[in-house]
Amino acid sequence: MGASDTLDDYFGVDERDSDVGTELVAGVTTFLAMSYIILVNPFILADAIQIQGYEYIEVVQMVAIGTIIASAVAIFVMAFYANRPFGLAPGMGLNVFFAYTVVLGMGIPWETALAAVFVEGIIFIVITAVGAREYVIRLFPEPVKFSVGAGIGIFLLFIGLLEMSVVVPDPDTAVTLGDLATSPAALLGLFGLFLTFVLWARGITGAIIIGIVATTVVGWLTYLTGIAGASVLPTALVSEGGELSFAVVTSPQYDISPLLFAFVDGLQGVDPLTFVLVVFTFFFVDFFDTAGTLIGVAQFGEFLDEDGNLPDIDRPLMADAVGTTVGAMVGTSTVTTYVESSTGVEEGGRTGLTALVVGLLFLASLVLIPLVAMIPAYASFIALVVVGIIMLEGVLDVEWDDPAWAVSAGLTITIMPLTYSIANGLAAGIIAYPIIKAATGEFDDVRHGQWLMALVLVGYFYVYTSGMLG
């Protein structure tokens, strides 16, 4: 029996109407779409993590190693235990909350913030093991389950266009069209975007990978030939003076002992109330971000059953619980399932073999970080725009003529990008559903657990927006 047959048998690739080659391509696609976290997460957390005797860039490199380790562990659990094609890594938004709200804003030591992440991870492991997480997710109203895919699609689309500078912040209108004619990076991003759309429309396997790589090559060529300046290169490699510097990736700090189990020191002398609030916020956002991503990507991959549930959802949920716990041990913020997993699903990934490839590539990036760093943001974020548009097909599953469905689904879809949070979109839809159901005289259709969940989420929004977290 060959290696291909062995992998096919172990992961049940053929049973899910896939093949080993497709799974490998899907894994590479997902990795390319989410690999930016290897560079982004360290620079965010290093702003808050200061270690005596180490320079800033050394801390960045240490956190990069921790990011890779935590991601790989979580992904391997997803591959071998859950057998699902989802990638995991420290979550964007959660790392910002960790660094700028908890540590820099509230003045909490970074070791204590890691302790909060560790406690959250342990809680997740326990409630996942007993099936409580799956029970809560099954309480999600149907319109939320069936609209979350489209909501994530718009969210991905928005993030991608922002990172490509096609859409830019504006003080008067919040966002506006970027200066495309004078921005080489934005023009290259648009070139790569439409190249990828053409390849995808033609049914070319690996269209997203080809688009990202082609755009990267063209970007470097425009710089090397003098057509464009350093603005088309990855910002991590360019100094303020416009000179290239590969120090951040050619001389990595592999000794992460200052970060290992630093959370243990953070458990000492903490203020109980503040600590509980921090743990609760990490817990809430990770819970609903992961749930929303799993349901949304699962809907896109046609993994959901007729009731909109993901069978054996406790298994993929355990992956992010273990990843979060390990992440705290090695010095990084909460690990969550990535919406970029949808890029691999779009390429045909259907089993844990896709996740295994993602995890192995994360480990390989320990020595191949320079190659990852060569990809500019405008190239890597092409995948988000393409998949975001494709995922909009989820709106077809919503019963728009039903008021409760329309309001709940509409809020779920729109609040995600408008507040830059999957969790907020889910919460808005969950809160709206029982209220509108009751208003239309269908009170008996609402389960008691749905009322309770809506009430808890109202409490969360009050805490989150009242300034109690600093």
Percent of residues in beta strands?
under 5%
**Count of separate structural domains:** 1
Mean pLDDT: 86
Number of strands: 4
Largest sheet: 2 strands, antiparallel
Structural write-up:
This protein has 470 residues and is mainly alpha-helical. The protein is built from 21 helices and four strands. Strands 1-4 form a two-stranded antiparallel ribbon. The N and C termini lie far apart (60 Å). The mean pLDDT is 86. It holds the Pfam family Xan_ur_permease.
Topology diagram in text:
Blueprint: H1 3-11, H2 20-34, H3 37-46, H4 56-82, E1 88-90, H5 94-103, H6 110-129, H7 132-138, H8 142-163, E2 167-170, E3 174-177, H9 184-201, H10 207-224, H11 247-250, H12 263-266, H13 272-300, H14 314-330, E4 335-337, H15 341-346, H16 352-373, H17 377-380, H18 382-390, H19 403-419, H20 422-439, H21 448-465
Antiparallel strand pairs: 1-4, 2-3
